Amino acid sequence: MATNVAILASGSGSNFQNIVQSDLDISIKVLIVDNPHAYAIERAKNLDVPYRIVDRKQHTKDSFEKEILTILKEYEVELIVLAGFMKILSPDFISKYEDKIINLHPSLLPSFKGREGIKDAFEYGVKVTGVTVHYVDSGIDTGMIIAQEAVIIEDKDTLETLEEKIHEVEYRLYIEALKMVLEERQ
Ligand code: GAR
Questions:
Q1: C-alpha triplet 125, 130, 136: angle, nearest 5°
Q2: Which residues bind N(1)-(5-phospho-beta-D-ribosyl)glycinamide (predicted)?
Q3: Same domain, 66 and 156
Q4: Is the CB of 83 inside a 6 Å radius of any atom of ligand 1?
Q5: Residue nearest to atom 7 of ligand 1 (CA)
């Protein structure tokens, strides 16, 4: 049976859309966003995916995570896929879904952790950056790596062209990595 998945996002949601439109053998039960202005919400409406807004600003850290956990239980979620979700989940939350939370990060970890992986790599001046898919553990961008791919930064690249190159790799790599995760779960 298809694995029940929740996708968590904070912003544009292009990876969310890409996953919904992929051939992955999953049942996307719900999109959860922490930001009521996230464009991902419009995508969920267009794609007919149920969505829930858990506004971080209306919650304490504790009640924010409790609300998300309630939604995950309600939808019998087995796998949590972070797609541009910009909030740090607590060790307590993560322990409830150990090895069941996957994250996409726009750099070659362990370099350029954090919220601005693309910009930080570009401004540092590295010639190679990339994309990483990893399990989420209690550290920040430290969990076991599932898949990784390099992206060359050329002299002619701007931050914008680099962002495009990274996203292109993300769309392919996240699907490949999720396929590996699903196979391992069988
Ligand atoms: C993606 O580039 C993803 O790697 C990044 O946010 C973007 C979301 O784009 N995630 C992180 O930086 C996590 N620290 P999207 O909303 O269009 O999918």
A1: 120
A2: 13-15
A3: no
A4: yes
A5: 84
CA-wise closest residue to 142 among 105, 93, 96 = 105
Domain holding 132, by residue range, is: 103-186
Minimum-distance ligand 1 atom for the alpha carbon of 105: 4
* Top mutation candidate among 87, 105, 140 for ligand 1, by most atoms within 8 Å of CB: 105
Q: Which helix (H) or strand (E) holds 122?
A: helix 117-124
Question: Over the stretch 51-64, which tens digit does the pLDDT of each residue have?
Answer: 999 999 999 999 99
Query: CA 106, 110, 114, 118 torsion: positive or negative?
Result: negative
pLDDT above 90 for 23:
yes
Cα torsion 11, 22, 81, 127 to 10°: value is -70
Query: How confident is the model at residue 161, as a pLDDT?
Result: 98
Domain count for the chain: 2
Q: Which of 94, 152, 147, 90 is nearest to 121 (CA)?
A: 152
pLDDT digits (tens, 9 = 90+) for 91-131: 999 999 999 999 999 999 999 999 999 999 999 999 999 99
pLDDT of the residue at 1: 86
CATH of the domain at 28: 3.40.50.170
